[in-house]
Amino acid sequence: MENRYDKYKDSGIAWIGEIPEHWDTYQLKRCSKFINGYAFNSNHFNKDKGIPVIRIGDILNEQISFENIVYVQENNELEKFMAHKNDILIAMSGATVGKIGIYSTEDKVYINQRVGIIRTIQYNFIKRMFTTNGFVDYVNLSSAGSAQPNISSEEILNFYIPAPSIKEQQLIATYLDQKCSEIDELITMQEEMITKLQSYKQSVITEAVTKGLDKNVPLKDSGIEWIGKIPEHWNTYQLKRCSKFINGYAFNSNHFNKDKGIPVIRIGDILNEQISFENIVYVQENNELEKFIVHKNDILIAMSGATVGKIGVYNSDDKVYINQRVGIIRTTQYNYIKRMFSTNGFIDYINLSSAGSAQPNISSDGILNFHIPVPPLNEQQTIANYLDQKCSEIDELISIKQQKIEKLKDYKKSLIFECVTGKRKV
Predict the structure, then answer these.
(1) Which residues lie closer than 8 Å to 277 by C-beta, 6 or more apart?
(2) pLDDT at 27
(3) Residues 365-401: b if buried by 16+ CB within 10 A, e if exposed
(4) Distance CA 118, CA 30 (A)
(5) Pair 267, 276: CB distance under 8 Å
(6) Other CB atoms within 10 Å distance of the CB of residue 201
(7) Is 262 within 8 Å of 320 (Cβ atoms)?
(8) Which domains does the chain have, with CATH numbers?
(9) pLDDT > 70: what percent of the chain?
(10) Are 281 and 264 in contact (CB under 8 A)?
(11) 1 pLDDT exceeds 80?
(12) If we measure between CA atoms, which residue out of 78, 83, 71 comes closest to residue 108?
């Protein structure tokens, strides 16, 4: 077979399988050193001066993100907790346990608790091990059964890896750097196309809900900055004139369970203008909480946090409650009204209304006071039907791009596995 070594042997390690006859296997600790992060006092963090502190949330897409970085005063006694160039940083607990990022500069940074450093001269080859299904499965198995997934430094260092000669490692690393860079470039292109399609969708919605579908109709000034000119026969008014708002209930999270009762929709369940039930929780039914039950075609909106202003339409008759900081916008014009929340005008309104607070949030009054353009009901329905079809076409194109991205990611992962385990000869 092309691109194969002449002879293979059983590695004795399930995730690795067969390896070239002249290769070896050993535990990561034979070629690497592990350093646990320091338990900084979060009260000492600041946003603008000192030495950056890398926390778990800063490890993203195999890199280190400095977008939300925090700083502490330099302390010579904490030198051992500084990351060096080419250190592999790994998340040791939480939802992202096992995720890695390569620290690629000489600048001073500390690592926070539950971030670990894997330091090895073979980093360019070793780092690829952490993207294989073998390592992912190993982390999942090691961290299973605990409420907070976590893995220890000992477990990391006990992970078995295939070990070609240093010369071969360098050849494999160089080959994978080039090939993965090419794949990443293709992924980036698809992501850029998705961003353009999403912007196009937003502009189509804004144009339709503020100008209508008839390009020849006379226009007038709406008097509302985000709306601009509207057809002469349209009106504007605040959302509260045609909608009712219901705030969510402050459930005690200790009463949540994963398998029985009535589902509770939380902020994190509002995704891509829909409601996701992937991580849903349940509570015992309570007749006194009837007012917090969602109706079919209710528009649910995130009232705080990073996703403030995001909406999802509930399209079922099944009973569900809404949790605190999720709001219900109930209107008979839901199919038209829901489109307002995808316009740049609403996004800007949310950003302006929630600016200046540590935790972005908007009130029910803030939502209901939002001014909207209002065509006659029959025209609303025509616009809604047009947008349903048009947005569906755009969403289908986006879905195709997302599928391409998934295939590229799968190909990248399989290529890495084949190369680092010797299934493919470089």
Answers:
(1) 263, 269
(2) 96
(3) ebbbebbbbbbeeebbebbbeebeeebeebeeebeeb
(4) 12
(5) no
(6) 19
(7) yes
(8) 33-119 (3.90.220.20), 235-374 (3.90.220.20)
(9) 98
(10) yes
(11) no
(12) 83
Q: Are 158 and 32 in contact (CB under 8 A)?
A: no
Q: Of 222, 249, 256, which Cα lies nearest the Cα of 236?
A: 222
Average pLDDT over residues 293-303: 95
Question: Hey, what are 29's tokens?
Answer: 């600790």
The pLDDT assigned to 61 comes to 86
* pLDDT digits 0-9 by tens, 17-49: 999 999 999 999 999 999 999 999 999 999 989
Would you say 214 and 375 are in contact if contact means Cβ atoms under 8 Å apart?
A: no
Is residue 114 within 8 A of residue 90, CB to CB? The reply is no
User: For residue range 398-417, what is the model confidence (pLDDT) as tens digits?
Assistant: 999 999 999 999 999 999 99
What is the signed CA dihedral for 281, 285, 286, 291, rounded to 10 degrees?
70
Unique residue bearing structure tokens 């007038």: 220
- In 3D space, the residue among 124, 54, 65, 123 whose CA is nearest the CA of residue 92 turns out to be 54
The pLDDT tens digits for 122-160 are: 999 999 999 999 999 999 888 876 667 889 999 999 999
- Give CA angle at 396 (395, 400), nearest 5°: 115
Do residues 26 and 148 touch, judged by C-beta distance below 8 A? Answer: no
Strand 100-102 and strand 18-20: the pairing is unpaired
Confidence of residue 355 (pLDDT cuts 50, 70, 90): low
Residue with tokens 């979060």: 42
What span, in angstroms and rounded, lies between the C-alpha atoms of 419 and 426? 7
Q: Do 307 and 273 meet the contact criterion of CB atoms below 8 Å apart? A: no
Contact 34, 117 (CB under 8 A): yes
Biggest distance spanned by C-alpha atoms of the chain:
81
